[in-house]
Every structure is written in C-alpha cells, then in structure tokens.
Design the sequence.
C-alpha cells in the first residue's frame, strides 16, 4: 500500500484527504477539513489565502507519513508575486465585481468569436483574462513578476518551485486547446505578458519536494515529493468518473455544476460559442467539453440566509412539494453574486409569470428542479454540438449525496444516472499521484478501480418527459 495526501480546496471548504492505493484497492479518508471563508475588505472580495495555507499545513500534519502530496482547487483565481517571491496581497475572489463591463472592452480588441475560436473558452466574467484586463492599471500588477494560480501558489509555498499546471491554465482563456500551449497571439493583442506565468506542467509531472521548514512544521520526514495533479478540481473529478463505457456524460456537482462530455478534440464552432460551452483540458490530453451552471451555490446561499436549517429535513420537505411548479435559469449570471438569494429566486419566478415559492421547502424544490432542468439542457446540447451521443450520466462530487437532485436529473435527462463518488476530485488527485508512482495503469484502469472500490447509486428515469419539455418552454419559449 502507498499513501498519498490530496489537498482539495473548494469554494466553501478545504480538506486534506489521505488515499491508500494498493493492488486492486483504493481507500480514502479525511485527515482534516477547514472552512474557506472569503473576506470583504474595502477594495472588494478576497480569498483568505493564508488561512487556506494554514489549513493545508494542519492537514499534512494530521495525515502523517505520505509518499506524495498533490493539490487541486477551483479555477481562474491567482496570486501575484514580487521580485522576491513575496505575495502582493490576497488573491481576488472570482465573484468580485471588478470584472463588470470588462469583457466588452476586451472584445473591442479581440471580438468574442475570434477569442472563442482561439481559446475555446466559454464566456464567464471571471475568466483570468478578464481579471488581468481589469487589473491592468493596478499597482499590484505593475509590480508583479510572477502570477501563480491558486494551487500553484500553494505548491510554491510548499516546495519553493514555481510552475503552471495545464488543466487549470486552460481556464485562463490564454491557452490554445488544440496545441495545449499558450495562445501567444491573443496575449500579444491584449497586452498580456505571458512571462508572468511559470513554465507549464502536466498531471503526473514532479513539482518539487517539501521544504525543510514545511517538514519541520508538519512533523513529516523527508524527502516528500509533491506531484502535479489535475489541479483544476473539475479535471481531477472527471479523471475519477467511474465509467465503464465511452458514451457517458458527467456532471461534477458542488458549488457549481459542470455538465458535459470528455472528448479527444475541442469543439470550436460558432454554434458552440453561442451555446456557451467551454473546452478545458483534462487528463491525458482530453478535452472537458462542458457548460458552467450555478449549481448548489443557489441552495448554499439560501441555507445561509435561513440560518443553516437541518438539510436532510429541508430536502425531505422539498421532495413533497409539487414538481416543476416554478423554475429559474440556473445558469443565469444574475445569481453569481452572494446575498439575498431567496429573494432573487422569488423575483426571477415572478418575472417569468410563475408562482412564487414562499417557503424554504418551496424555494429548495424550485432550485433542484431548475438545476435538473439545466443539467438536461447541457447534456442534450453537448451531445448535439459534439456529435457524441451518451447512454448514461455520471454525477460526481458533493451533489452525488443529494438523492432528490440525482433522481430529478435522471428524470429530466431521460437517462440513467450513476451517482458517486462524492469525493471525486480527491480521488482523481490521489490516483494521478499513484499513477505517477507506477501503481495505476491507463485512464481506463484508473476509472475501473474507482468503479470497483467506491460506493455508487444508480437512478433510473421515471415520470412523464413531457413535464420537462413544458418547464423548458416556460424558460426559453421553445
């Protein structure tokens, strides 16, 4: 048995998971979990990166002896370092308002259609490219000598070595998904200095060893290597999809829902751009062709405003509510910012001429029906745009524990749903480390190990599909 520490940072919490891998065996346990609480300061919304790093060190201490460490996190956000390698302020949160109106400025130089044809990335106001355009006149960017995406920044603090992991770099809107290298023409036209980025790394590449100071603080005995994994948590999660066939769709659920397909090549058509699908890079030169949906963020924000009620009771009550009474567009950027989520959902229902849910159970059912409807739309459109039919939908991540959401997604898509594993990102992180150490074979063998060792739940579609067609028509008019 070999032991690996997977640092897996989500938008609301971080955890250090310990994976033990042996011949035909895969076990995952939680060593340490800690909150990820953004902080609003006068200049805007910021990540508390020092608290996250402290949580990582505490987790490595709790993990004990490990053969390797890997780090994955959310995408697009980054830290800026000065000439001495010191951090120039806390990283800006992707929900910060600084990128409002920036895309239009960028498109005045590089039209949106050209940008998509070159990078394949969907429009999202927080893409790193737009963040850099928004920061163009800032003192921090003027003094920066290095830009490190969040997992690369933490890796740098652990090892003293800087790199830019490719799956996460593909979310910057500065990577060409065909060449899997920087889009030099786009960067030059927009005045973005690619010299800020450290050299590209790929999953499985070595990323250094823990510094002596880190060993002393965590009580570990060196050398402890750090291995590059799919550092975008979605890339790690997709790597751990327990599929036994090629005709599958996936939905990585958590704060976001990322719904799509695994492809061998990007889809860069104008129809794909207009449908707002993204081409991000995955393990083994694959493409994660997917759409970003607001996900359980909608429910998380409501629960926070309701004073954190008992979630199982809330979901049980939601299951008793009338189905599809009211739905909203779960991909609408109007729901991106925090605050007043129950009221904003009610306002959206009212604007669509639908009944306004007036209880936590009613709002919760509206959210889950809306997410299932968005999953349906994304899976159907991805198949059409990529000419890639599927027979099953895999739900991985935290939403795999939500039985109501999984059943509703099966009903909406008209396809079987296989739910699990819930800790897919951590499992993918562990397995890439294990594969780098020669313990796991190709991607199919990696997934077969997940399917054989992790608990999974299957949901068959039920009910009348016409109900979902009618709900879709209320949102789209089609």
Sequence:
């Amino acid at each position: 048995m070999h032991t690996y520490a997977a640092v897996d940072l989500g938008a609301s919490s971080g955890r250090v998971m310990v994976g033990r891998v042996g011949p035909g065996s895969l076990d995952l346990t939680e060593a340490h979990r800690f909150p990820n609480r953004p902080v609003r300061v006068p200049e805007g919304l910021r990540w508390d990166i020092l608290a996250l790093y402290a949580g990582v060190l505490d987790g490595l201490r709790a993990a004990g002896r490990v053969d390797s460490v890997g780090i994955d996190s959310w995408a697009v956000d980054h830290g800026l370092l000065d000439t001495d390698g010191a951090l120039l302020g806390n990283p800006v949160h992707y929900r910060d308002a600084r990128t409002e109106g920036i895309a239009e400025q960028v498109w005045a130089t590089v039209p949106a259609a050209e940008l998509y044809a070159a990078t394949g990335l969907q429009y999202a106001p927080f893409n790193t490219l737009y963040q850099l355009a928004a920061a163009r006149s800032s003192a921090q960017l003027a003094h920066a000598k290095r830009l490190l995406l969040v997992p690369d920044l933490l890796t740098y603090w652990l090892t003293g070595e800087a790199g830019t992991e490719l799956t996460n770099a593909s979310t910057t809107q500065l990577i060409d998904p065909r060449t899997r290298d920087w889009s030099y023409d786009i960067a030059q036209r927009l005045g973005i200095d690619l010299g800020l980025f450290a050299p590209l790394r790929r999953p499985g590449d070595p990323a250094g060893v823990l510094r002596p100071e880190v060993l002393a603080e965590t009580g570990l005995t060196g050398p402890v290597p750090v291995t590059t994994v799919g550092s975008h948590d979605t890339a790690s999660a997709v790597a751990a999809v327990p599929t036994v066939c090629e005709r599958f769709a996936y939905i990585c659920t958590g704060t976001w829902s990322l719904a799509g397909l695994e492809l061998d090549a990007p889809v860069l058509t104008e129809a794909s751009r207009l449908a707002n699908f993204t081409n991000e890079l995955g393990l083994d030169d694959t493409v994660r062709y997917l759409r970003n949906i607001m996900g359980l963020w909608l429910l998380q924000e409501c629960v926070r405003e309701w004073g954190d009620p008992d979630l199982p009771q809330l979901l049980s009550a939601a299951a008793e509510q009338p189905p599809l009474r009211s739905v909203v567009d779960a991909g609408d950027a109007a729901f991106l910012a925090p605050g007043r989520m129950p009221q904003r959902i009610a306002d959206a229902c009212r604007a669509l001429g639908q009944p306004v849910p007036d209880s936590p159970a009613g709002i919760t059912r509206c959210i889950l029906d809306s997410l299932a409807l968005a999953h349906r739309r994304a899976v159907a459109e991805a198949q059409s745009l990529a000419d890639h039919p599927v027979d099953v939908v895999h739900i991985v991540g935290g939403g795999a524990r939500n039985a109501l959401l999984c059943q509703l997604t099966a009903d909406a898509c008209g396809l079987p749903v296989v739910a699990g594993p819930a800790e897919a990102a951590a499992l993918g992180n562990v397995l890439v480390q294990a594969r780098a150490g020669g313990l796991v074979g190709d991607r199919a063998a990696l997934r077969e190990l997940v399917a054989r060792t992790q608990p999974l739940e299957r949901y068959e579609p039920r009910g009348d599909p016409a109900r979902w067609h009618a709900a879709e028509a209320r949102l789209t008019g089609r």
